[in-house]
Design a protein that fits this description.
52% helix; alpha/beta; homodimer
Chain lengths: 278, 278
């Protein structure tokens, strides 16, 4: 059964896109939106991403059967603490955070009915932020990772899975720590490296950059606060990914130093093949 | 005066796009195409990228007023040696190579009329290769760097500049060594890093990657042989760029290790600002 009333806590790019998608797919679902800026809530109402706007968290979740945390990860603990008492025992809580271990732990500690929390990570978005960039088709065809733990209510897990499928996502399940390790490698590391590549450029270089550079560094334009939260929250895994990348680059440096042309070509070819296979 | 007969040595993505662009812009220009594979030449004729196909280098350049080297950089020396005697004293020679110092040096040594050579680097292209991906508008609006030296004939330089402007490119001039330093930073380094990021991924990670990863690593799908040539040819500058990136990553590692959240956010914000300003 699709949810009858959902609450989107944080109506930005992701939260707004959930609202727009739900409106276009499930006609009779009511959509509450919480935000701390009235201008964002006004824009969300105007764009049709939410039906009702709230600046009070407890009021925003009352009577909802599905609550989705869509703010930056750094705000989750405070939100979970505040909404805990206002949730009905039947309400399911999920989120769209890019890290999962700390989120699942917080939910386990802070919610009154922790078994009704299911961590989610829809792998969609862009370097843009704000509800004005929200799109009803942002999630379509993309992947959503769910991170249940032993105590998670299987019924809640299934319902959250159905919810993302309703938005035309493909879903899979991972343990929270495995999610964080893999995402450090495939998402947080590329972001850190894109920022580092931009950081070392000269102004002259930036003025001469081509389409390859622009694509490779597009993600570096993303919101700094959001990514700081992700980096700090997933510090251990990101550190280990950064160290592995450094080893890979050190190997390339050695091979260039020694003019190992054939080994460099084999390395480039292996990467090219893997990239083409995605 | 636009050239009357040009010779494109190597009809791939770039050479083919030059042919298609010239055909659409200068109606009465004859376009010779040289290649070592008959199938490529057949496709080039069929697509209208060239008027006449040659598998003999000397024949391909005879009677041409503009000759453009469009093969991988590693083949340039052999080509320059072979065409030198077949060029008329008035013929202008240029190229589309991604590195310039070695190319300009080779031309200076190997050509009978070295002052008629002008190094060019049109910053356009994609990870695709082959004339089947050529487009008449590949160069439109993009930047082309010319790398004249003291001995370069100013008239030849102007004519090559006019040629790229004819293809709707913006042109600028750099010394060959400065070009190579800047391009190592803004192009060759991002390529090396994209390959390294792909190389360290697990299969699971690749199967879960999102749009950010795909954009950040798109260039890694490029032709390995072509990029090996570029890496080896621009070894010193690429090594120095790699070492600067490593320092930048080491700084991030230290900051993560010490949980310096504010410094990390400032660093991310500075990169985001620079990237948004491109």
């Amino acid at each position: 059964m699709p949810p009858k009333r959902i609450s989107i806590l944080g109506v930005g790019l992701l939260g707004g896109s959930i609202g727009l998608a739900m409106r276009s797919i499930v006609k009779d679902c009511k959509i509450n939106g919480y935000g701390h800026r009235q201008s964002t809530l006004d824009a969300s109402l105007r764009l049709g991403a939410i039906d009702q706007a709230f600046t009070d968290l407890k009021a925003a979740v009352q009577g909802c059967d599905l609550v989705i945390l869509c703010t930056p990860v750094g705000l989750f603990s405070g939100i979970l603490t505040q909404i805990s008492d206002a949730l009905s025992p039947e309400a399911i809580v999920t989120d769209v955070g890019s890290t999962k271990q700390s989120v699942v732990e917080s939910a386990g500690k802070l919610l009154k009915y922790p078994d009704r929390f299911v961590g989610s990570h829809p792998i969609a978005g862009s370097e843009k932020r704000g509800v004005e960039h929200a799109r009803a088709d942002l999630f379509r065809g993309a992947h959503c990772i769910l991170t249940p733990v032993a105590s998670t209510d299987p019924k809640a897990l299934e319902e959250v899975e159905e919810f993302w499928k309703l938005l035309h996502m493909r879903t899979s399940r991972l343990a929270p720590d495995e999610h964080d390790r893999i995402l450090a490698e495939v998402s947080h590391l590329p972001h850190a490296v894109a920022a580092a590549i931009v950081a070392i450029q000269s102004e002259k270089g930036l003025s001469l950059c081509g389409p390859g550079f622009r694509d490779a560094t597009r993600i570096a334009a993303g919101d700094a606060g959001l990514w700081r939260d992700i980096f700090i929250d997933n510090r251990a895994s990101l550190l280990s990914s950064l160290r592995r990348l450094r080893e890979e680059l050190d190997q390339l440096i050695r091979r260039l130093d020694q003019d190992e042309s054939a080994a460099i070509e084999r390395w480039l070819e292996a990467a090219a093949q893997r990239r083409r296979n995605i």
